[in-house]
## 1
Amino acid sequence: MRRVSQPSELKLRIAIIALLDKHVTYWTGRKNSRADNARMPDFIRTLRLKVRPESSRWLNAAAVEVNQVFNYCNEISHSTATRTDVKRKWLSGFDLCSLTAGASEYFERIGADTIQRICCEYACKRRAAQRLKLRWRVSRGARRSLGWIPFKAASLKRKNRALRFCGKIFRVFERERLDRVQWQAGCFAQDAVGDWWLCLPVKITPECSPAPKEAVGIDLGIKDAAITSDGERLEAIRFYRDARCKLALLQRRGHLRQAKRLHRRIRRRRQDACHQFSRKIVDTYQNIVVGDVSSLKLVKTRMATSVLDSGWGMLKRMLHYKGEYAGRSVQVVDERNTTRRCSNCGSLTGPKGLKQLAVRTWVCVRCGVSHDRDVNSARNILASGFRCGTSVSGNELSPAEHPPSQIPHLREAGSDAQQGGGMTTVLKRTEGKPKRLRG
């Protein structure tokens, strides 16, 4: 065996072997789960547990004291940043903690650790907003702020089957989720109905398991909230639109608490549908490619209610964190011309413009294959994901692209022709230009 003399050549060989191993793992989907679990870093997940109602009165009073500390930080930071002498400065979290030292003796419920957490959180929020001051926290009245009580990790301790914070015993639902878990700094948060929730960030180790199938493309829409390249659909249920009349009736009668509960029920139904669909996708596919449809742009149109009721952003967020936990690759790609392009031959012969939104199935004039509009778009999204070199063990995106000759054409027997109730048309186009017919 020839001896390697230069370290640079040895490093080059190691890099080539690692690159080949990465490509073999990407195309075969075979990985050593134990080694992969050792390489993949841990990530933070927030546990949200409901606090039992007997502690709501104490939490409401503690939230008033938190608002007082927050408003003091807001006032002193604004006055210091707007000074006209040489002492003008932006106060950091450390400066605010120094100014509030010893203030815990003037409060009955919160301690010094909570005051320090409030100061640090205020400094971070003001730095992120890039403003001289933030909005005041209101404790009473119709426009009062929702309760918020931050704390450090050491301030919350276990007490048998309950939790202890600032000398107060709290009981939460689903207490078993905190067993053998080491939490970080969290908070008590109040929702619009008035219920209190314990939010605890915990460190989770990913559990990588092989997926039965390799890849899937997902197209987000309004008629169906999500459509996969294999033909599976997430039905766009009218969660808010079906309850809009009942909401208006409750608001006119002044039953605001019942209206808030109905809003929460609508949100939970939408979350449940997205949870079930995202869990099914993550458990089935190794590589997940989603279109980059923008909800923020479409909410400015007449389709705003339908777009917000579909929950596209919620579904993307669930796919990302569930895919990260399961060791999947979740990628968002550009979906330009995915509706028009034929997934079989690649020609732009599909429906175009607002006037052809009613065309749900169409036949390509170049290759003669019948397409379902949404399924064809999902297949083109999947093909766009194959052009980019993505990692199987994470969600990072890679700018590297494969040559057009290596782009796979996705074909499945018996799945090209879809039997649907939409309109079927043959569009006389070649490469986007109308074809003149001589008669």
Note: The CA atoms of residues 254 and 438 lie 68 Å apart.
## 2
Amino acid sequence: MASGDGLSTAHTAPLRRATGARCTGIDPALLGVADIDWAAPWLADWRAVGEPIAQQVVAGRPQPLALTDAGRAPVRFVPQADLPSGMAYEAFIAGTAQVPTREGLHDFFNALCWMHFPLAKQQLNRLQGAEIARDGVQSQRGPVRDACTVFDENAVLIQTPDSVWQALSEHRWHDALVRQRLLWASAETRLWIFGHAALEKLVQPYPGITVHLWRVPEGVSAAALDAWLAHDLQAAKLATKPFSPLPILGVPGWWAANADPAFYDDAQVFRPRRLRKAAQKPHAESELQRPAWTASIRP
């Protein structure tokens, strides 16, 4: 499986704690930037830029300052306290070009996404801002704002042949991930992780982590991906929720255990397709066998 071209800077020495990032049974609230395993395949596109910034944070530099000084985003990252009480997060970003940023993994990966996909992140912010301006901040998000949040937190972009996409969308897991495995090992299938909450969960991987796939047409290059995505993210399309779920550790080559075809036999993780009710949200494809604790999610 080929991942997208990363942001190009020289790699630095790996940064990790003695226990490594792939520890198990630890409350994710106790995990931090030092626990990121930059050698993980899902971080191939993020490592060159992210690891040096992580080293600064681990050394004690305030996270918003280290992220801003990287100079790779169209926004500045500011302490969470800079967000005025009662002001919507999206409205603050739109009005100030500043992103309130907490210490910790979730907002660290969000900032890296701003560096990697600046045009798409700006488009998502515009869409969410327009929804808030029209409807206000409701207790329940409307379909467009809901889909924007799901995309922002959990999307993975995939470029793959029709046969693989159809098998994935129909939950024919063995067909997509075993029988057509060679298509994942070639340039015919490429993945780019977008969702920062998905990356946060993957600091401590477990089989039930499920992402929302968004298809990229053949012919869109890695260099053109951000511009294409910013154009593709339109309210009308998002309202249809054109996502397809994928347990991310099922990606061939991304998890040692999936070399055994029996890995995909667990129907609690690789579930058969069910008809979606009209009112069901796109993230209703819940992650089963998830630890009792959950990472904090913020729009």
Note: The beta strands are 2-3, 76-79, 98-101, 155-159, 190-193, 210-215, 244-247.
